[in-house]
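lol forgot to send this yesterday, sorry. struct tokens for the thing we talked abt
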């Protein structure tokens, strides 16, 4: 998916998975228990801050994502790969497709309102 010259891809085993556009949204098929990464490529001539969320939660701190959330700085022409939830500067918890009740958001907040939204 590309928006404002910033490209986001969901990767399984290092490869982009198929995207399915529908009514202005983009869908991907997430198979339960499959680990995934998120890649962000900045095709702009300037640095951007990528605020990434999974299930409505910031991947940086696990809190509800919003306009004031922290993100990753992505330099012009650079691609970053985010392998999971940031636990510390040295550790991440892998992203994994799961059903609503098993989602990180449902387990950590009790809400599954945004489950499946990246």
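and heres what i got for the seq, position by position
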């Amino acid at each position: 998916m590309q928006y404002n010259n910033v490209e986001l891809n969901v990767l399984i085993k290092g490869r982009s998975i198929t995207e399915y556009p529908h009514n202005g949204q983009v869908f991907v098929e997430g198979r339960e228990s499959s680990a995934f990464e998120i890649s962000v490529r900045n095709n702009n001539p300037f640095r951007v801050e990528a605020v990434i969320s999974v299930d409505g939660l910031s991947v940086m701190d696990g809190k509800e994502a919003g306009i004031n959330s922290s993100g990753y700085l992505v330099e012009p022409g650079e691609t970053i790969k985010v392998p999971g939830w940031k636990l510390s500067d040295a550790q991440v918890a892998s992203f994994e497709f799961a059903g609503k009740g098993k989602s990180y958001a449902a387990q950590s907040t009790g809400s599954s309102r945004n489950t499946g939204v990246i």
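The chain has a mean pLDDT of 89. anyway ping me if u want another try
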